[in-house]
Amino acid sequence: MKITQDLYQGSLALLTDFYQLTMAYAYWKSGKAEEEAVFNLFFRKNPFQGGFTVAAGLDYIIDYCRNFKFGQDDLDYLKSMKNADGSLTFEPAFLEYLSKMEFSCDLDAVEEGTVVFPHMPIIKIKGPLIQCQLLETPLLNIINFQTLIATKAARIVYAAKGDSVLEFGLRRAQGIDGALAASRAAYIGGCTSTSNVMAGKLFGIPVSGTHAHSWIMSFDSELEAFKAYADAFPDKCVFLVDTYDTIKGVKNAIEVGKILRERGKEMLGVRIDSGDLAYYSNLAREMLDEAGFPDAKIVASNDLDEQIITSLKIQEASINVWGVGTKLVTAFDQPALGAVYKLAAIKNKEGLWEPKVKVSQQSIKINVPGNQRVVRFSKNGKALADMIFLKEESLERGQFTIIDPVDPTKRKKIYTDGLEKEELLKSIFEKGTKVYERPDIHQTKKNTERNLTQFDKAHKRLVNPHVYPVGLEEGLYELRTQLVFKMKDYDGA
C-alpha cells in the first residue's frame, strides 16, 4: 500500500501569524532579510505534569518545508492589503521578492518518537533570517499539537501495561485536520489502531471498529442484532453488550458465539461502554470462561484516560483492550504543549556568530543562546542524562558538568568513559535539500517504544515522576549568564 507523504501539497505559506509577514517585510526593508540566523524550537515543561515528552510532527514539517512557497493567489491577497490611510501594506518589490523565495535553510530535528525534555531544541533551523522567521508559526502549530497527542498516547499505553489501546476519537477531535493529526500522533505514541479510516488511508495506520448501539436498536431484539452482525462479519465479532442490560448482553453474545463456533468461527470478544467497568468486566470474564470462551477479549471504553485505566488496573478489572477517544485526541487535561521558537544566534558582518538571549524576570523564560547540539549519555542502553552544548564544543572530553537551565543549584557531573553518546538532532535539510531518509510510521512507532525503554520507570510514572537530568554544558551556562548580565546593563536594569 502506498502511504501518502505529501499531505499538504499546495502553498500554505499564509498559514502564519500576520506579524510574521510584517517582520519579514521590515527585515527586507532594512536589508536584514538575508542575514544568517539560528532559531530553536523547544518547550519549557513536560505536559500532563509528567516526566517525559514524545516528539512528533516532523513528517508534516518535511512536507511543509518542501512545498514552502508563495503562490500567485497568496501574493494577490497580500497585494490587496491596505494600511489605515489607504496605502499598500506591502510594496510591490517585496511581493516580487517573496515570489522568488525558495526554502534554503538547514533544518536539524529530533526524530519522531524520540523522548525529549524541556529546554532542549526539538528543531533547529539555520538560514536566511526572513525564512527562519516565516517558518515560526507553522512549525509551532505542527509540533505543539502532535507532540502533545503522542505524549498523551504514550502515557495511556504505559498505564495499559501491555494491553492494546485503540484510538477512536475522530468524532470528538478538533476539526478534520485535528482528527487526522491526532490519529497519526496517537499511533506514534503507541496505540495499536485507529477508527479514523481517512487516517488509515493517508498514513497506513491499522483501522478497527465493530458496531454502535444504533445497530442493536435498529433490530427488534439484541440477540437478533448480534446474529445479523455475525452473519456479516463472522471473523470480526466483538459485540457491544451494554445497550440495554450488560449481563443479558453478555449472555446473548455467548449464544451467538456458540453459533459461530459451530460454523468454525470464533467470537473475538465483547465491548462494555458504560457502567461500572471493573464490576461488569469481571462478571463478563466469569461468564465467558464458564461458557468456554476463555480467549474472548473484553474491550472497555467510556471516557477513558491514563488515570482511569490505572484505577481499573488496581481494581483488577478483566479488561484486555482499551478504547480511548475524547481524552486522548483532545489532550483533555492539557490542551496545549506551549512550545516556543526563539532566535539563538545571528551572523554578523564579519561572518562571526553572535549568540542571542531573551531576558525575562522569570528564569524559565530565558532562552538558551548559540548554535546548539544535544547529546544523550547512556550506559547499557539506559539513558543517564542529556546535555545541551554549543556546536563547536568537542565531545572528546572525559568529564562534563551540566547545569539545570532554571535552577543552577541542580548540577550533575558526567564521566564519559564507557558511556554511549547519541546526538539527538539529526540533519533533515541542508540548504533546502532534504537529506533525511524518513521512516514509515510503523518504524516511527517502534522508535517510540525503543526510546521509552531507555528510561527508568521512575521517570515514566504518571504521578510525581522523578526528574530526568537535562542541563546546559557548564561553558554554555556561563555564556548565557554573561549575556543576561550584559543585556540587563544595556537596558539600565
Automatic annotation (TrEMBL):
**Which keywords does this Swiss-Prot/TrEMBL entry list?**
Glycosyltransferase, Ligase, Phosphoprotein, Pyridine nucleotide biosynthesis, Transferase
Domain Nicotinate phosphoribosyltransferase N-terminal as annotated: residue spans:
14-144
Pinpoint the Nicotinate phosphoribosyltransferase C-terminal domain residues.
372-479
Q: Which pathway does the database say it acts in?
A: Cofactor biosynthesis; NAD(+) biosynthesis; nicotinate D-ribonucleotide from nicotinate: step 1/1
Describe the reaction catalysed, as an equation: 5-phospho-alpha-D-ribose 1-diphosphate + nicotinate + ATP + H2O = nicotinate beta-D-ribonucleotide + ADP + phosphate + diphosphate
- What terms describe the molecular function in GO for this protein? glycosyltransferase activity; nicotinate phosphoribosyltransferase activity
Q: Identify the residues that the record assigns to the Nicotinate/nicotinamide phosphoribosyltransferase domain, covering every copy.
A: 167-362
Q: What is its EC number?
A: 6.3.4.21
PTM note says: Transiently phosphorylated on a His residue during the reaction cycle. Phosphorylation strongly increases the affinity for substrates and increases the rate of nicotinate D-ribonucleotide production. Dephosphorylation regenerates the low-affinity form of the enzyme, leading to product release.
| NCBIfam families (alphabetical) | NAPRTase_put, PRK09243.1-2, PRK12484.1
Provide the family line: Belongs to the NAPRTase family.
State what protein this is by name: Nicotinate phosphoribosyltransferase
Organism encoding this protein: Fontibacter flavus
